């Protein structure tokens, strides 16, 4: 499989210049005024669950950790910054940048692959003001799309049901080469089984799949192009069999069985199938709709698959790439059963049908409601571009500086931030379903199982009360003193976590349409701090001339 | 600026494994049947102009050329392929892959940065069947998003009008780190002036811009945090001036002039502005809506800017990041004019107003219709994710193999392909506006200026006639025998080409809403070939058993 050292070298290559220029001008202004080492705390969160849903998945942490670990400016980086920052910039600032790393940064984070909700602070980034400011754009960039596309994949997985296998095939529609790579990684984590992207398999160990495109089929016109024309049996019998004649015999019998007009069968398509089957007799899964499924593709498939079966091989299945996938798949399955009954080929019992045709979340959900026989669904454009909502909108907000809680006060309570360093607890009911995430001050004792606690909602003064049956602390320290302090998970491990986390979520929150909204609450102490700062802000020394 | 060698090393790193697995299984099947060296020709095109518009821009060629030039499998790549391709794969195939490069490939392409239309073959990729098949996904990936986001940028540019400067700031919303980099490159090419993405400046020489975020402003609470508190005058006078006192004086006068309540002015905001101005006295452009534009931000700005002006510096302007940008900008401009008149500060005449607030193409167009004073618009999410249509849908279709034209026949004429090797000519009217792209066979003589020619439309049998006033050949050979045969353009050069190409386009095709559709036509010879293949396809040896 993949060489982890290579994988690491590519994933670690997010350069510290991949950020917005204003991070540097602000870092300089902090440095210039001597505030760059002040302890500061930022929180990363999003304000609305994506796709009109009731939840999101948190992803991208792995990449953030690699980024933090390797965060360092090269001489070349600093030379470039010298050329773009204003000429007034003190040369000593560039020396400062040259020596910068994340040894002073501590990251507390929700584990990657966890179900999360709008307004829960997912990451807390604490460290010297100038450094944690510089990290903003890169961390947002690494979390935003990863979480979005992972959540999108999870929704496709929910829409598809657990039985069906899902193939990601969006590379050609993604935002350039590495947009595609990111998509492949995080859709796998979100619940897809396979990707078409070979480089993703190489880097992340993601299972890869794919067989043939229409161009392969249409590149053949005649059986004369098939070479070799023979195949040896799977049992190792050394005598090669004339595979073309064998298949032609089966084709006649198939036509007879189905009452099909043999005159509409495409020779080029048969040649393509034959040559592919001879090359890969164990992996025969052609695309059967290049011309006509019923009049040509399905007949050719059955003939080749019957010939393969006769030689002891197990054909894999077919791909449908156009038209009404459901009704076609039912027709195709019926023919497979008929062949099995009539020719006694048990291999036809386990043939798989792959459907790929501009599948959206909606068409996936519809597909799940209609009668169909599709075993594997391939999804490209709608999955990787997240057509339904192409950005998540994570933000990174200052909540404390020099030990002083700060908050952005907006007339819209949803746009205000929640001040101070916090702990986040997830409360579960007696059935193990999470039902409330409680944002507390870091210094508060955690909620106790079986003990009633009161809480508040943002922008609402009424007091609510609840008794948790279980409590977990949602975040953990994952990076400090320049070191990753929690084992990095492979894509496969994180993928398993996603499923565990989703399984515990109550169906009412998991519904794709009109879910019940999940409660994200503030502790009484947080609420008090918010109220104090709001009150203070409107009548104290924050104003230049207190009248 | 950027070191071109570094830039090259990153842009050339698209690995040949970044493709769909089926490209390899098909390449193997071609190889196994001895067809891998057959000369084949693919065409790359899209079927619909994006965003409901009348045109697109063609971009991504530069990256394609770097990809072709460096296309080679490493031992590690081949080892990985050995692990994912079926065990039946002949080991000699991996030797074949190991020796593969693009020395047999010829690419003819529309120049990057050209206005193009749906169904025009943009690229023709000719070479050994197995190689040109392997290139499919990577070329699509490199052209699709580049052309889409470049076209999106061009539409924002058209919506904004030529006067306004446009800043791309979408890094945090893009598909991961390199999705963001691709966005920055191609939005600049499409007509944006600036990017916030520093790494894009480093790699592509794109002008970068940015000053401060709200977090910078809210991190300050008191004037005590401002240090140093002095500034020397721009004329070099060595005596430092107490910049805080100077500004406070100006603030009183500004409040008096505007009849503003000084009691609502935020001390932290003033501290933030002062410290920034002291750090960068030549580059003062703060965000003024952290608290209240009218009650605090604008007053603080004017005071600091007046103090800077008194010391001989030229303040740059302000940024508005929320609310109604148009009406606020008008208010802000009015205050600037008032200050200028009242305090005789000419620097206030040329202050710029930057607006950034979730700008979409529509809000940009509306902004252009309403009275406003915004000089620079920053665009993020809607620009880089192309919310209006997040994928272009380029396809790559086989048009000739072993000298034989091939076509995909579909009941929907728009889904059929056009067979054979072609030349594409762009016909211009007497005013120099292109009005028709003519797809001819490569062997046909080009259309003659002033000579009437007849043409056909796809899926329509009627004959049309036209007389061009000018004719250009749309594509040129850009890669052959492993070499790039046409000078690679810098992002800046391609950006200029985009503007030239857009300027020649008639306004009726350039309209963002309900444009007139541009004619893409077939020559009589192409039409004849299509007809012959269609006819042949329905009654000849392409069928297995011609009845």
- Largest sheet: number of strands, sense, barrel closure of chain A: 7 strands, antiparallel
Shape of chain A: elongated
CATH architecture of the largest domain in chain A: Alpha-Beta Barrel
- Quaternary: homodimer
Protein name (chains A, B): Nicotinate phosphoribosyltransferase
Pathway (chains A, B): Cofactor biosynthesis; NAD(+) biosynthesis; nicotinate D-ribonucleotide from nicotinate: step 1/1
Cofactor (chains A, B): Mg(2+); Mn(2+)
Catalytic activity (chains A, B): 5-phospho-alpha-D-ribose 1-diphosphate + nicotinate + ATP + H2O = nicotinate beta-D-ribonucleotide + ADP + phosphate + diphosphate
Textual characterization of the structure:
Two copies of one chain form a homodimer. Chain A is of the alpha+beta class and 547 residues long. Chain A folds into two domains: 4-154 and 390-539, nicotinate phosphoribosyltransferase (Alpha-Beta Barrel), CATH 3.20.140; 155-384, Alpha-Beta Barrel (TIM Barrel). In chain A, the strands form five sheets. In chain A, strands 14-13-1-5-3-20-21 form a seven-stranded antiparallel beta sheet. Chain A has a six-stranded mixed beta sheet with strand order 18-17-22-16-15-19. A five-stranded parallel beta sheet of chain A has the order 7-6-12-11-10. In chain A, helix 8 links the parallel strand 6 and strand 7. Chain A is elongated. Chain A starts with a helix and ends in an 8-residue tail after the last helix.
In brief:
The structure is a homodimer of 547-residue chains. With 547 residues, chain A is of the alpha+beta class.
């Amino acid at each position: 499989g993949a060489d982890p050292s290579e994988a690491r070298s590519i994933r670690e290559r997010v350069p510290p210049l991949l950020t917005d220029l204003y991070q540097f001008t602000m870092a300089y202004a902090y440095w210039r005024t001597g505030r760059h080492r002040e302890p500061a705390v930022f929180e990363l969160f999003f304000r609305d669950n994506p796709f009109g849903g009731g939840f999101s998945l948190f992803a991208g942490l792995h990449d953030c950790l690699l980024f933090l670990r390797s965060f360092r400016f090269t001489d070349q980086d600093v030379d470039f910054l010298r050329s773009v920052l204003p000429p007034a910039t003190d040369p000593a600032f560039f020396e400062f940048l040259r020596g910068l790393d994340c040894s002073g940064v501590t990251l507390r984070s929700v584990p990657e692959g966890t179900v999360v909700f709008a307004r829960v602070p997912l990451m807390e980034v604490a460290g010297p003001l100038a450094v944690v400011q510089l990290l903003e754009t890169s961390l947002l960039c690494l979390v935003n799309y990863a979480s979005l596309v992972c959540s999108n994949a999870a929704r496709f997985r929910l829409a598809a049901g657990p039985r069906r296998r899902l193939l990601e095939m969006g590379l050609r529609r993604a935002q350039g080469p590495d947009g595609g790579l990111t998509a492949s990684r995080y859709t796998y984590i979100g619940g897809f089984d396979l990707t078409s992207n070979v480089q993703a398999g190489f880097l992340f160990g993601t299972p890869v799949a794919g067989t043939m495109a229409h161009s392969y089929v249409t590149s053949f016109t005649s059986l004369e192009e098939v070479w070799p024309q023979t195949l040896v049996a799977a049992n190792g019998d050394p005598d090669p069999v004339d595979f073309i004649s064998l298949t032609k015999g089966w084709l006649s019998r198939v036509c007879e069985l189905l009452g099909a007009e043999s005159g509409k069968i495409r020779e080029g398509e048969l040649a393509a199938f034959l040559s592919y089957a001879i090359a890969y007799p164990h992996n025969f899964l052609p695309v059967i709709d290049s011309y006509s499924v019923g009049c040509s593709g399905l007949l050719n498939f059955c003939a080749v698959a019957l010939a393969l079966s006769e030689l002891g091989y197990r054909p894999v299945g077919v791909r449908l790439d156009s038209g009404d996938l459901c009704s076609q798949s039912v027709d195709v399955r019926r023919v497979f059963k008929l062949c099995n009954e009539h020719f006694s080929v048990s291999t036809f019992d386990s043939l798989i049908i792959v459907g790929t045709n501009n599948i959206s979340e909606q068409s996936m959900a519809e597909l799940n409601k209609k009668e169909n026989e599709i075993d594997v669904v391939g999804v490209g454009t709608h999955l990787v571009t997240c057509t339904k909502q192409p950005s998540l909108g994570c933000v990174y907000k200052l909540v404390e500086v020099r030990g002083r809680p700060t908050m952005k006060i907006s007339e819209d309570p949803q746009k205000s931030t929640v001040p101070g360093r916090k702990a986040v607890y997830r409360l579960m009911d007696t059935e193990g379903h999470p039902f409330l995430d409680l944002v507390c001050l870091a210094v508060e004792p955690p909620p106790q199982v079986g003990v009633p606690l009161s809480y508040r909602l943002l922008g609402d003064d009424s007091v609510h009360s609840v008794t948790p049956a279980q409590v977990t602390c949602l975040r953990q320290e994952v990076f400090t003193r320049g070191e990753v302090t929690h084992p990095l998970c492979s894509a496969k491990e994180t993928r398993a976590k996603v499923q565990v986390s989703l399984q515990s979520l109550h169906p009412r929150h998991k519904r794709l349409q009109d879910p019940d909204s999940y409660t994200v609450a503030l502790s009484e102490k947080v609420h008090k701090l918010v109220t104090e700062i709001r009150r203070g802000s409107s009548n104290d020394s924050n104003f230049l001339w207190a009248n």
